[in-house]
Each structure stands twice: as C-alpha cells, then as structure tokens.
Specification:
The chain is α+β, with helices and mostly antiparallel strands. Helix 2 (105-142) packs antiparallel against helix 3 (154-179). It has helices spanning 3-28, 105-142, 154-179, 225-228, 389-402, and strands at residues 42-48, 51-66, 69-73, 78-83, 92-93, 98-102, 182-184, 189-194, 201-202, 207-213, 216-223, 243-250, 253-264, 275-282, 301-318, 327-331, 337-341, 343-347, 351-356, 363-365, 378-383, 386-387. The two termini are 52 Å apart. The protein has 5 helices and 22 strands. Belongs to the membrane fusion protein (MFP) (TC 8.A.1) family. Keywords: Coiled coil. Residues 111-184 form a coiled coil.
Length: 403
C-alpha cells in the first residue's frame, strides 16, 4: 500500500474504532441509582410536649432556729455551790432538771424568821379575839343599846388581822426566794452558752446562760407573692399544713427532714418585700425516738421544698426553651420553624410550666440556633434523645458520596 493511501485510510480506521468503543461503553454503563430526595435545612434536635397534672414545689431556704430560747437570769444573791453535769455548752437536759444551785443558808434563816413572825402575829390575833369577846360580854351586861366599834375593840382586831396577813406574805416571799436558789430547766433543751461556774458569787440579775428548747425547731423561709399564690397557707391555725422537705449536704451525704408550714409572720419585710413562712420540725435532735438520720442542729442552713397546689393540664419544659415575650420554638409537620406564644403559669430555676398554648405531641426545637426565622426549613435529628431513621439514612448517603 502506498504511503499516500495509508495517510487516507488510517484516520478513517481510527474514527471507526473509536466510535465502536464508545458504543460498547455506552451500552455497558449501569443506570444511575435512584436515591430518595431528602429534606434540606438545618439539622435540629427536638423534644415532644407532654401534658400532665403537676403538684408544684416551692423552693426556698433558711436557717434552723429553736422555737423556744431563754436567757437564764438569777433572781437571788449568793454563791453557786452546785452545777449540773449537763450545764455545759452542748449539754442536753430534761424539763425541771436542776441546773444551778445557790447557797441557801441565808434564805433558810429568812424563812425561819418569817415563820416566827407569823406565829407571833397569829398569837396576838387570838389574844385580841379573846379581848373582843370579853368586851362584848361586859357591854351586854351593863349597858343597853348599840356598842361603839372602839368599845368592842374592833379596830384592834383589824390591826392584828393585818399583822397576820403581813407575816404570811413575808413567809411566802422568803419561801419564794429560797426556791429561787435552785435554777431549774423550764423545758427540755440544750445549753447554748454558759456564763457562770461553781464557787462564783452572783447577784440578782446575773445572766447564767442561754438555753434552747429541743422539742421543736423552726425555719423561717422567705416567700414572694408569686410563691404564696401556689401554696395553701394555713389561716388562724386551721386547715391542713403543707408538707415541707428540708435538706442539707452533711459530710458529702444528702440528709433530709420532714416538717410542716404552720404559719406566716403576716407582715412583709420592708427591705426585701417578702413574707416569711415558719416551718416547724418536731424533735429535731431525735431525742424522743430512735432515728438513724442526722440530727437537725440549730444554726444549720437548709434548703426547703414546700408542697404547693396541684395544677391540671400543664406542659413542663426546660426553662432555657422559653424565649423572650413567652415564646417557644416549634417544628411543625412540614419541618419548618414556628414561633408560638404561650401562657406561662410559673417558672423556677429549672423549668417553665406552660398552662396553655401547647398541645400534646408537638415538637419543640432544643438545638441552639443563632438566628432562627419563622418558616425556616429544618431537618430533625434526635427526638426525645432518639435518632430518626431519615436522619440516619441521610448520614449514610453522605458517607457513600464521600467514598
């Protein structure tokens, strides 16, 4: 074949071969896989709104104090000759227990002197009564008519009777002073502080110590007007008292005690504009019963949860989902964002309680979004903590594309 013919035929052959290869490759290619069209938009997580009946618990805090506290003060003068072993700071004592005894010698002498004075006054009274009887007899024997008071010794009799009563009062005073040499506990309690000791001379008005009653402890809880709207406060000591749970962390362990909200102080605090509720706890040191819990000591700072009223058909949602102007962000059936106005009945440090504006089963967006807009298209990721199937499929599809 001549070189000229080769130059003409070779390009034609190459074109035919290329066309044949292109036809073969076109017929051998697999059709493109049909994939489901997935929704587009920002991936967000959501939770489902649940409607339920809720009993509110109002949270407050306060310091444990004794209901009864008394400063023991001496009413006599003298030297202390006896002190109870329980008359120490932190010592417990029973009602009527002898705490401090003052020397009694001078007071015993005063009682004896008062008794002798009363005996003399009583003898003089009996003697005067006899003279009155004699005077009445003499007047009846020698004179007719009404006898004068002086003639019948009536004034003298009245004077002797007054002397007897004065002597009796003096004896009572002496006996009372003698009884005051023994300072006894007016109620069961604990000694908070002590100011005297054995051998010390004290005078009338000397402070001996401070005692606290251990039968009942009280906790003053500050309550706002909004708090009191959700508590059935007792009125005039009548009705059921709301239960109160007190708690504190002691040595790394949470300890709890039960009490009752028995009254309010009735006057708003001028500075904080709150009203104080008073919670009582019986036997805080657990002396009457054999308890295993930690004693509720005076001076301890505790957290309180007061049992409130029950509200019907309320949606409880995390407080951070509540937006300004009482709005929440929903995901509707078309996977679009919706701003919804709701009526909030109450909020606390963790939750917001929605009374109306939400229906059961609606989805609330919980993901953080910088600039959410009404009607913005989104994709659901996790709902109530569980991944949706479509979201998992979308993630698998993205992985396949990368491969």
């Amino acid at each position: 074949m001549s070189p000229k013919l080769i130059k003409i035929v070779l390009p034609i052959v190459i074109v035919v071969v290329a066309a044949g290869l292109l036809f073969v490759l076109s017929n051998a290619r697999q059709p493109a896989e049909q994939r489901e069209e997935l929704p587009t938009g920002i991936l967000v997580d959501a939770i489902t709104a649940h409607v339920e009946d809720i009993q509110y618990r109002i949270v407050s805090q306060g310091t444990v104090q004794p209901k009864l506290m008394t400063s023991l003060i001496s009413e006599v003068n003298g030297r202390i000759i006896e002190v109870s072993p329980n008359f120490v700071e932190g010592g417990f004592f029973a009602k009527g227990e002898l705490l401090v005894k003052v020397e009694q010698d001078d007071y015993l002498t005063a009682v004896k002197a008062a008794e002798a004075n009363l005996a003399r006054a009583s003898a003089s009274l009996e003697e005067e009564k006899a003279r009155v009887r004699v005077a009445e007899g003499e007047w009846a024997s020698f004179t007719e008519g009404v006898a004068p008071e002086l003639g019948l010794r009536r004034p003298q009799l009245a004077q002797e009777l007054a002397n007897v009563r004065s002597a009796e009062a003096e004896l009572e005073r002496a006996a009372r002073d003698l009884s005051r040499t023994e300072i006894r506990a007016p109620y069961a309690g604990i000694l908070q502080s002590r100011s005297v000791n054995i051998g010390q001379f004290i005078s009338r008005g000397t402070t001996l110590g401070m005692i606290y009653g251990t039968d009942i402890a009280e906790v003053r809880l500050p309550l706002t007007d909004h708090d009191t709207a959700f508590i059935r406060l007792p009125t005039r000591g009548q009705g059921d008292y709301p239960d109160v749970q007190l708690s504190a962390v002691i040595a790394g362990r949470l300890q709890q005690w039960q009490g009752k909200l028995i009254r309010t102080e009735g006057v708003l605090d001028e500075r904080s504009r709150v009203i104080y509720g008073v919670v009582q706890v019986e036997d805080p040191y657990q002396l009457a019963l054999d308890h295993q819990n930690e004693p509720l000591r005076f001076g301890r700072f505790v957290r309180a949860q007061v049992q409130g009223v029950t509200s019907q058909q309320v949606v409880m949602l995390p407080r951070n989902l509540l937006r300004p102007q009482n709005q929440v962000l929903l995901v509707d059936a078309e996977y679009k964002l919706e701003f919804r106005d709701v009526i909030v009945q109450r909020t606390d440090e963790r939750y917001a309680y929605v009374a109306s504006g939400l229906e059961a089963g609606e989805l609330l967006a919980i993901s953080a979004m910088p600039n959410p807009l009404q009607g913005m298209q989104v994709r659901l990721g996790r709902v109530d903590g569980e991944w949706l199937e479509s979201t998992v499929t979308s993630a698998t599809s993205d992985t396949d594309k990368q491969e």
